[in-house]
Design goal:
Keywords: Disulfide bond, Signal
Largest sheet: 7 strands, mixed
Helix content: 10-25%
Signal peptide: 1-24
Distance between the termini: 16 Å
Shape: globular
Order of helices and strands: HEEEEEEEEEEEEEEEEEEEEEEH
Number of helices: 2
Number of strands: 22
GO molecular function: transmembrane signaling receptor activity
Domain Immunoglobulin: 31-113, 148-220
Radius of gyration: 20 Å
InterPro entries: Ig-like_dom_sf, Ig-like_fold, Ig_Fc_receptor, Ig_sub
Length: 232
């Protein structure tokens, strides 16, 4: 019985370790937000287990895949280990990092509208952890945007939501999740003690400035303590 228990425990450890090493590269967003007004500076970071060599930033806008710095069929330009967007024309697509052997990071959906210059930098660095996110950039047609994390959040953590005005500062607003009010009254800022049930589609609404775009908050469970498993 004891041998069977040890075998089961080792099996659990292997599964947990495997779950942590599925992706060889991951994406992060800085600042960690989903919505931006045009003119904002945003960076997407590709982080590989073995460094930045061999990784290419790619996108699909619905008419085929394109690679950063690839001339006529590409976009942006490389500067060291960064993919720079000097002129980000209004284009939406799916972006990811891809290795020489075809391994891919999780995808990032980017929505851009308006014709002002947006500086978007994708940097390649040498660390790895799993993320998943959507990124949206909105034109001056929207007077407010929702400040909400782009990366998934862990249960038990605090998440702060704000309704940000295009003219600067925050607006007193009602906040909604999946069509239901998060709070019964208008507030400038709210903080949520995140539970799995808080995952969903969020937006804010202000009587003067109208509605923000909608963004999805992803919630993940707490990270399992592998150390205690291995030392048991």
């Amino acid at each position: 019985m004891k041998t069977a228990s040890v075998s089961q425990l080792l099996g659990v450890c292997v599964l947990l370790l495997s779950a942590l090493t599925v992706s060889a590269v991951s994406l992060t967003v800085s600042p960690n937000l989903q919505q931006f007004f045009t003119g904002a500076s945003v960076s997407l970071t590709c982080e590989g287990q073995l460094g930045s060599d061999g990784w290419t930033v790619k996108r699909d806008t619905g008419s085929g895949n394109e690679s950063c710095g690839a001339g006529g069929r590409g976009f942006g330009r490389f500067n060291g280990s960064s993919c720079l967007f000097d002129e980000f024309k209004p284009v939406s697509g799916v972006y990811w990092c891809e290795g020489e052997a075809g391994e891919k990071s999780e995808e990032v959906n980017i929505t851009v509208s308006g014709n002002e210059v947006i500086h978007l930098i994708i940097r390649l660095t040498a660390h790895c952890y799993t993320t998943s996110t959507s990124l949206c950039v909105f034109s001056s047609g929207k007077e407010v945007i929702l400040e909400i994390p782009a990366l998934p959040v862990r249960t038990g953590s605090d998440v702060t939501l704000r309704c940000k005005k295009k003219t600067g500062g925050t607006a007193a607003a009602y906040f909604y999740c999946n069509g239901r009010p998060v709070r019964p009254k208008s507030e400038h800022i709210i903080t949520i003690d995140v539970q799995q049930s808080d995952e969903g589609l969020y937006w804010c609404a202000n009587d003067e400035f109208g509605l923000s775009p909608q963004s999805y908050l992803r919630v993940r469970g707490q990270i399992t303590d592998i150390t205690s498993c291995l030392l048991s």
